[in-house]
Design a protein that fits this description.
The structure holds 2 protein chains of 2 kinds.
Chain A: H1 3-24, H2 28-48, H3 52-77, H4 89-111, H5 123-128, H6 135-142, H7 163-183
Helix pairs in contact in A: 1-2, 2-3
Chain B: H1 8-11, H2 19-53, H3 70-80, H4 91-107, H5 126-134, H6 137-147, H7 151-182, H8 187-193, H9 207-223, H10 235-238, H11 248-272, H12 282-297, H13 302-331, H14 339-371, H15 382-392, H16 401-421
Helix pairs in contact in B: 2-3, 2-11, 2-13, 4-6, 4-11, 6-7, 7-9, 7-14, 7-16, 8-15, 9-11, 9-14, 11-13, 12-13
Classes of the chains: A mainly alpha, B mainly alpha.
Chain lengths: 197, 422
């Protein structure tokens, strides 16, 4: 077993184990802890696959952002010291069914791929010998230029990138920000206090 | 032959497939020992500096005249202490929280280059990774505060979390200001670009990076929860905040993590603004650079190239340690801010200031191009060095320099938006 395969096994096992622990544990903050381990191991898997940017984004957005927000929410809203979530039998059965269905979908799509086929690296990477340095191509494709993808005859080179989705996401995030600050603003009474009878 | 190995992994190449595992173990052990030992020096420094500032002598007894063994005595005391876990605590989370903090702080050194090419992972988006990893530390602190089963800890943890999450935003934006000048997120490339006289350091690149350095340093101090921003650990009202219930080694893990992240943010500052491992004296830097290259490609003595790198590490560590010293100095000079003032400072002043600096840093090259006809105020070789660094990393450029600069700006905007959403 090569070092890379060994590390893959370790992190994949950690991801699966802690994902199960999220489902099994009952305290919300413990769930968050296991989710951190699960998502962190997923990020490690991305790093192993030489996708540095995706791995770092995974850490920054999911672990450092979303989960911290989740725990904050629990800390601010919990009525008791350790909030517990119990599941009824019906919920367990429904969730189990949905989980099995999802497993079936994933299994079907994974087994539909021919994994024996050798992966051809993009021309850009072959020319430079660079592996894992995905940042520059990523940035360029967000700008709408994908020099490595190859432009089909009769197609506009500028149209092959992801400029439009990138801009839409940016505007969307801006709207979310404005909305959040509107919701969180200091509430003023419509009528001054001394006029209320 | 030993010096010719470019990495520890290469040195152990006779082990076959396990060389990377051996190299990883060596790196991890080195790192833990460096940051178990460097707090010795930093805590001793903290005691001595605070003593001098308060017109005292500081430690003088243990280990001779300057009391330099005081930290060892403290360390032995901490190891001996009982490992307590309160009855009301969630023991699993309580016990694992210090490790989360430690792992987050230590993992940051994975992508921090100590000298030319001396970095564990030379990632293309090194700065992004390091900021992502440092943002994990807050989770350990929330866990510690929440799982202690104590009101002091919970309040401390919440304050700490709110403070660290808010200060991450200006930290990331300030770190982006020199990135606009560099056009790369690779910390190794950024350090290499600042070779030559200290005028080529990004600190002096334009007025915006100059101001950004000081804003960054303030924000970095706050995000390491150091005084004057340490109200979350206020001894007088919160009994120590999130680590109230901790004792012995687990308590000291938090401090190892704190000193490690102090060193990490100061290291980032020295790479982004202060020239990294470059001495700042033109001829010396050029000679060291030549020695390194000659050592690497076999035309010169490998031992000389190795020595040049060791000198680089010395310069880098000195710059970062000076940053830590300034943080200690600030702690004993400035009074604490109230928690609402800490948040106001961040959200009402530091975030707008850093956004303004970021905007200014983008407009600066445009303004210079229209007035002077070049993108930097120095007529110096920064542009050439950028090209050289990139060529060294064997990244072919099919697009012009202006396009790539634009890419950096757009990528930077993306990061800012992600940060702001949080």
């Amino acid at each position: 077993m090569s070092g890379e395969a060994f590390l893959f096994t370790v992190f994949a096992a950690m991801t699966c184990f802690s994902a199960i622990a999220v489902v099994v544990s009952q305290t919300v903050v413990r769930m968050a802890f296991w989710l951190v381990i699960s998502l962190g191991s997923t990020a490690a898997l991305f790093f192993l696959a030489n996708a540095d940017f995706v791995g770092a984004a995974q850490l920054l957005i999911y672990v450092g952002g979303t989960l911290v927000l989740l725990v904050f929410g629990v800390m601010l809203t919990a009525s008791g010291p350790y909030m517990k979530i119990g599941t009824s039998t019906g919920e367990t059965v429904v969730a189990g069914l949905i989980g099995l269905l999802f497993l079936f979908v994933v299994f079907a799509s994974v087994s539909g791929v021919n994994w024996r086929q050798p992966v051809t690296a993009s021309a850009d990477n072959v020319a430079t010998g660079a592996v894992g340095n995905t940042l520059r191509p990523l940035g360029l494709s967000f700008l709408g230029a994908r020099p490595e993808s190859g432009v089909l005859p009769g197609e506009d080179a500028a149209g092959t990138g992801y400029l439009l989705p990138f801009e839409i996401v940016s505007v969307h995030l801006l709207v979310v920000l404005v909305g959040a600050s509107y919701l969180a603003r200091a509430k003023r009474r419509a009528v001054p206090v001394n006029q209320v009878v | 032959m030993m010096f010719a190995a470019q990495s520890i992994a290469e040195f152990f190449s006779f082990l076959g497939g396990w060389q990377y595992v051996v190299a990883a173990v060596i790196h991890a052990v080195l790192l833990v020992h460096v940051f178990a030992l460097s707090p010795f020096a930093f805590i001793w420094l903290e005691r001595k500096v605070s003593g001098r500032i308060q017109d005292r002598l500081g430690p003088t007894r243990v280990g001779g005249l300057f009391g330099w063994l005081q930290s060892l005595a403290d360390g032995i005391k901490l190891v001996q202490k009982e490992d307590l876990c309160p009855q009301a605590a969630d023991s699993m989370l309580f016990r694992s929280a210090p490790y989360v903090v430690c792992v987050a702080s230590f993992a940051a050194f994975m992508v921090l280059p100590f000298s030319h090419g001396w970095v564990a992972v030379a990632a293309d988006c090194g700065l992004f990774i390091i900021l992502a990893i440092l943002s994990l530390e807050v989770f350990g602190i929330i866990m510690a505060g929440y799982s202690s089963g104590s009101k002091w800890s919970l309040f401390g943890g919440m304050r700490e979390a709110a403070q660290m999450v808010s200060y991450e935003i200006p930290l990331a934006i300030c770190a982006l200001v020199p990135i606009v000048a560099a056009g790369s997120l690779n910390l190794g490339e950024i350090g290499g670009m600042q070779r030559g006289w200290f005028g080529y350091w990004f600190l002096f690149h334009d007025p915006f990076t100059f101001v950004a350095f000081f804003v960054y340093f303030v924000v970095a101090t706050a995000s390491c929860k150091r005084a004057p921003f340490d109200l979350a650990e206020a001894e007088s009202e919160l009994v120590g905040g999130f680590h109230t219930e901790y004792s012995g080694m687990r308590w000291s893990y938090f401090f190892m993590g704190e000193y490690a992240s102090m060193f990490a943010v100061c290291g980032i500052a020295s790479i982004l603004f202060l020239g990294g491992w470059n001495t700042g004296i033109g001829p010396i830097d050029d000679a060291l650079y030549a020695a390194r290259n000659a050592g690497a490609d076999g035309t010169g003595s490998p031992a000389l190239g190795y020595l040049a790198n060791v000198l680089g590490v010395f310069v880098f560590v000195s710059k970062a340690s000076f940053g830590v010293f300034v943080q200690v100095w600030l702690r004993w000079t400035l009074p604490r801010l109230r928690i609402d003032q800490v948040m106001t400072t961040c959200l009402k002043y530091l975030v707008p200031i850093s956004c303004f600096l970021f905007l200014g840093a983008i407009l600066w090259p445009l303004a210079l191009v229209t007035t002077l006809g070049r993108t930097t105020w120095t007529s110096g070789p920064l542009g050439e060095l950028v090209a050289e660094e990139v060529r060294e990393n064997q990244v072919t450029r099919s697009l012009s320099a202006a396009d790539v600069g634009g890419v950096a700006v757009r990528a930077a905007e993306g990061v800012v938006e992600k940060e702001l959403v949080r």
